[in-house]
Amino acid sequence: MTNPRQLAFIALREVHKGAYADVALDRVLQKVKLPDHDRRLMTELVYGSVRRQRTLDTLIDQIATKKAQQQPPDLRTILHLGFYQLRYQQRIPASAAVNTTVELAKENSFSGLTGFVNGLLRQYLRLAETSPDPLKLPENPVERLGILYSFPDWIIEVWLEQLGFEETEKLCEWMNQTPTIDLRVNILRSSLEEVESAFNSAGVLVSRIPHLPQALRLIGNTGGIQNLPGFREGWWTVQDSSAQLVGHLLDPKPGDVVIDVCAAPGGKTTQIAELMGDRGKVWACDKTASRLRKLKENAQRLNLQSIEICTGDSRNLPQFYQTADRVLLDAPCSGLGTMHRHADARWRQTPESVKELSQLQFGLISHTSNFVKSGGFLVYATCTLHPTENEEVISRFLADYPAWQIEPPRRESPYSAYSTPSGCLKVWPHQQNMDGFFMVRLRKTNNSE
Ligand SMILES: C[S@@+](CC[C@H](N)C(=O)[O-])C[C@H]1O[C@@H](n2cnc3c(N)ncnc32)[C@H](O)[C@@H]1O
């Protein structure tokens, strides 16, 4: 079967049963051979329908007599696909969106309801002729943004509290965009200029990123990453710009002992080894063996020798006490800063999961800060924008461990642009056009014991 809409439907059915969107998509894609344009359409339909689920459900609620949640689950999925194309895929003619959705209903045991599907979608089109937007929005700012941009209320509340309405709206828009891909050039094997020139010769466009000396952003659709020039030779690795900031904030020196306590799959471990000129020791610790295997592959491809792997829970590694010049804690988190990369992330996290994560984060920082020698540093980083996992973890840590203090970026540092009043760095994606990140550099003073 090669109908991209039917294949999208099959993948979405798995997502609604609990599968991760990227896993469900890959599983279906692996079984079929699709031309590139159909593969792109299918991917767009799956990720888009998952991401825009709340908006699409609200349209069903407002246009049909039965609410979205009361529709048979497969019919709801088919309606999502139809409304998604009508509302967000301007390149698809409305008639094609309606007809293919009616066909989907017919092919998936809803032949008796094709009139209903057709009527609902055509009603949307009629409403769109007479009003700028057929979707009716409530006045309440939380629900208004939540429905329009398809986020749960609790996430909108977290952002509104920090940013206000206008900025939150910009952030919501940003988080619904297709993500960009950034690379970090491995300065031990190549140079920015060499990679740029190899890409230009292959017809692949890239741009530089201000303040990040090893970063390049891919422009446009580049096809398979592994086929780009220099991948096999270890000239570069995929890493978002804001993640690259973390390594620079840690600022490791050749000969240092660095412990990366949540290291897999190794984006930052390999950056640290590169920044150290591959001289010294980088311990890559993680509790997930399968992710550490990826780290090992990455280190081998980049030809880095200074990395040593350690599998286990980093809250329980007494051998490392007082041994490190620097520790990186890139903590497991709710990922609210990278929701544009994971279509279903906004529906998976909850206020309760955020609380649990903050306990884990506090446990990790309390234990692994013991790995640092007096006068050494710990960088705490997350890709979330939730204060409970960021500022609150750090405040609690500083209150309980008085030997530690925040070391704010120097005023002349290019990163001071992201600095908060307390000296932490916070990257708001809609302002900086990179993933959302929180990071802070902490110093262990000499009066630690
Ligand atoms: C945000 S990811 C790390 C990403 C990595 N630093 C990079 O740049 O590629 C968080 C990692 O923490 C690991 N993790 C979670 N709990 C842990 C624990 N108690 N001890 C060690 N690792 C843990 C997870 O397996 C996951 O690989």
Description:
InterPro entries: MeTrfase_RsmB-F_NOP2_cat, MeTrfase_RsmB-F_NOP2_dom, NusB-like_sf, NusB_RsmB_TIM44, RCMT, rRNA_ssu_MeTfrase_B, RsmB-like_ferredoxin, SAM-dependent_MTases_sf. One of its GO terms (biological process) is regulation of DNA-templated transcription. It catalyses: cytidine(967) in 16S rRNA + S-adenosyl-L-methionine = 5-methylcytidine(967) in 16S rRNA + S-adenosyl-L-homocysteine + H(+). The chain is built from 18 helices and twelve strands. With 449 residues, the protein is an alpha/beta fold. The protein folds into three domains: 4-136, Orthogonal Bundle (N-utilizing Substance Protein B Homolog, Chain A); 181-238, 2-Layer Sandwich (Alpha-Beta Plaits), CATH 3.30.70; 241-444, Rossmann fold (3-Layer(aba) Sandwich), CATH 3.40.50. Strands 5, 6, 7, 8, 9, 10, 11 and 12 form an eight-stranded mixed beta sheet that branches. Helix 3 (36-51) packs across helix 5, helix 8 crosses helix 9 (153-163) and helix 9 (153-163) packs across helix 10. The longest helix is centred in the last third of the chain and has 18 residues, at 351-368. The radius of gyration is 24 Å and the shape is globular. It binds S-adenosylmethionine. S-adenosylmethionine (SAM) binds next to helix 13 and strand 6.
